[in-house]
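Notebook B, p. 112. Complex prediction, attempt 2.
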Amino acid sequence: NAGVTQTPKFRILKIGQSMTLQCAQDMNHNYMYWYRQDPGMGLKLIYYSVGAGITDKGEVPNGYNVSRSTTEDFPLRLELAAPSQTSVYFCASSRAHESGYTFGSGTRLTVV
Amino acid sequence: QQPVQSPQAVILREGEDAVINCSSSKALYSVHWYRQKHGEAPIFLMILLKGGEQKGHDKISASFNEKKQQSSLYLTASQLSYSGTYFCGTPETQGGSEKLVFGKGTKLTVNP
């Protein structure tokens, strides 16, 4: 049971570079989410998706983009990385909005 | 709006009990609880629905008072494995879709 798989686990970016954080789930969940976690601040929602082809902004979407072409994959794109995007990024999925979320193991990103 | 958790941190000896509170300024119909160990992903503990109280695994249970817009997580006879940061999550509806907003977390440390 893979659950939610995130790659890479760690990454260091230079200011202005771009990258894609990958997220894949094998549970056939319709709902997928991207959160960022900063120390002492809890989890902040960046983007979410309720199904293939449908995405919407969360609380902190600036500087990020997403796509959802399949049920399984929900990549997060960072364009023009900034130091403020240094964080731990978690992808999650759920069967329904009233179901528990399953989180991936996270990507620790540092922008220097 | 982010739910408010209290206390921010708790230190216990093994076998002691703890209560973690989560309150919202908005009307609630459900509350999620998660536990996150250092360097790991959050793990779903339980969801409480309006009018219900649900027991989770081990000796962890929770209550939900929708009138007071509050939920409490009870950890009984704590074990070393209970150490971690506990988050509550409350649903918000946006454009017909729902997503969770998480509190800042309560750090629980259980010592031998």
